[in-house]
Amino acid sequence: MTASDTSAPQAHRAAEPVREGERPQAYYEAIKARFAAERELRLKFRPEGTSQYTSDFSGALSRYATDPWASGDIARAPIDDEVEVLFIGGGFSALLTAARLRERGVESIRIVERGADVGGTWYWNRYPGAACDVPSYDYLPLLDEMGYVPSRLYAKGPEIYAHCQAIARRYDLYDLAVFRTTVTSTSWDDAEKLWRIGTDRGDAMKARFVVCANGTLSKPKLSKIAGMDRFEGHSFHSSRWDYAYTGEDLAGLADKAVGIIGTGASAVQAIPRLAKAARRLYVFQRTPSGIDIRGDRPTDPDWAARLGPGWQQARRMKHLRGREADAEERARLAALSREEKIRRQEYANVDHMMRIHRRIEEIVEDRATAEALKPWYMFMCKRPCFDDDYLPAYNLPSVQLVDTAGKGITEIGEAGPVFEGRTFPLDLLIYATGFEVQKTGIYNEIRGRGGREINETYAQGMRTLFGVHTHGYPNLFIMGGYQASFQFNLTFMLQTQGDHIAECIALARARGAAEIDVKPETEEWWVREVIEHRGKTSRNADCTPGYYNFEGEFNRRQDGNYNGGFLQYYTHMQAIRGELEKHFIFG
Ligand code: NDP
Questions:
Q1: Residue 554 pLDDT more than 90?
Q2: Ligand 1 centroid vs 390 CA: distance in angstroms?
Q3: How far apart are CA 358 and CA 369, in angstroms?
Q4: Who lines ligand 1 at CB under 6 A?
């Protein structure tokens, strides 16, 4: 059912199944025009870009930051000791890099983590249905090293979280770890050649090397909606699920009217479970996600038993290199102009999106709801989702899609969200409104040589090597930041960075060097590389707003991810690693 399909235009007629490649150019142009119109519509409703959101959960919003998984007394004496390597954050980035450091004999490793355990994303996100969207055999790190094969193609949240804890145990990372502690300052001491780390618990720790492993999507954000604080029902963010309210099995929702704002990857996984459990479920949608087939299945034990040493890296590398084209195919591709290649890719992407549309038509019974669930943007403008239970949930009589057609919820009253004058009374409102992206969370209060804050250094544009090193910030390594590559399987990207960082630290130790700092000319080479490739996609200009394109905001060309492709990023990193001495200054 749909509460509003006000401005939802008709699906393009040509979306009917036709043999791909046989459609006229006008068909594609009409769909692209519709994509552009939908983008404009959304931008019109939120010209404020990223500032439509807040991650400042102080004051009235502080309850949205409360850690539901931590309990007991948090009092402890401040720490003022020194370690060799300190990780800010205890998620995958820290775990997979720390493992490599252990392999290289580094003993003194500390994780400082805001949560009460390791796990990062998988510590915080325990909403019902949480699972990885990349095959587990590629996504879960260190499978080979841990001698572990996930139980299914898409492992569920608890299994991934348990894997994180197992890594921490296996590599003795709990010994020096400090939990429920947030780093507030990171300052280079040039006299002592070490980093001084301040925290919200009054600690004054010292570390020779610091790795910022605080995640790319770790700070929850809330849409700034008028009247949020007036709502008299219960509410929480999807990454702070309150099972005390819902019940572990969601049985507590059987007599409740529940609303969820947002239809991104988190909501897509939670909605089918909420739909089954709640008396009434309202889904407040601004832009639909594209939902593809998931096809989850248990791991075949015979296949798992046959896996040999190095299987995970071999698998990842095979994906990275892709399918080798045969001679005939190579010749055919070589004969095409660049414009023709781009055009073909674009048309293939449109075909893909229209297949997503047809799937909705086949599954969702109510026509108006089906129309409202159709994403009108190019493939990969928003993160693709994969779920086999999401679309059928809209066939349940208790589920209502409130399609705001790009406008979003802009008002909340005492009883619940208000859209076009209608109030939706709720017992529970869930904000599945996402996370602050990369930038601000990572580059927080980091002072390098001469006390220079890193955002000051980046004021004229970001400057890094691989997104990891910045000149003037010796012995500091940033993971998952800008100027790194984008990779759908994020953990492969992180492992590539982690391996590189461990190598840099190992070399500095082997040389007995107190410092390792990237050479300005190497940094300059990478900044140019990033700028050159940033022009390769027009995602910012063409895509519907979302976190992939900074909500449609203008960005300087070097302030974003490296767009040369992950294979290229990987190759460059291997090359530099082969000659670290040439590209780094050792002090
Ligand atoms: P997203 O940022 O992807 O989604 C936020 C949602 O909130 C969007 O649908 C957005 O609409 C909507 N929204 C924001 N403000 C309003 C408003 N005022 N009214 C109505 N709707 C609103 O966050 P998620 O937590 O879903 O996902 C974030 C990322 O986390 C994913 O892209 C993925 O990288 C990762 N993730 C991975 C998972 C996995 O691997 N299994 C699972 C879950 C998350 P609009 O689109 O219009 O902006």
A1: no
A2: 15
A3: 13
A4: 131-133, 217, 223, 225, 238, 261-267, 269, 284, 286-287, 383, 404, 408-409, 432-435, 546-547
